[in-house]
Request: fold
Amino acid sequence: MAVVLGWVVFALSGLVVSSSLAAGLALVAAVLVGVLWRDTVAVNGAVAVLAPVGIMLPALALRHVAVSLGWDVPGFSGVEIAVLLCAYVAFLACAFGVIPVDVYRYGYAPWPVAGMVLAVCVYALVTGNWFLAGVAVLGQLAWVMGWGSSNWFDMVLHVLLVPVAVVVLVMRVF
Reply:
């Protein structure tokens, strides 16, 4: 949560100050949230609304900061984002029972999770996107260690990916 809230500070302050100064402010905010403000009503409220945060949101936030500072971190093509958006909306429809297929249950089982992580890593190898492989593997590590949710999908996906993907696709058109 500290990384995500720090990124909010980075994104907002980056509108008026340089990327390096915004990154410094974000680091200060993340430390304050993670250490001093950990048990405040505001942070606990953000956790209640956004939990489980998992790996993807902090990874995307850190990627955005890194790219803004000039680091070379692989991103995603418009086609990849569009496919993710369609697949994830269908996944959410399954999870909510709109589509009568229970895909979410595979996130609890070791062999399907291992297969999905392997498939993501093979795709990442083919496309050269080590960032994607890192998210899949770190999500599996967090899942195996029992950090957060007991479902692997919660570690590597988040419902906020839907509006983020839509905004990124719209921004790429204009």
The radius of gyration is 17 Å. Residues 2-51 form one domain. The chain has a mean pLDDT of 93. The chain has two domains: 2-51, 78-173.
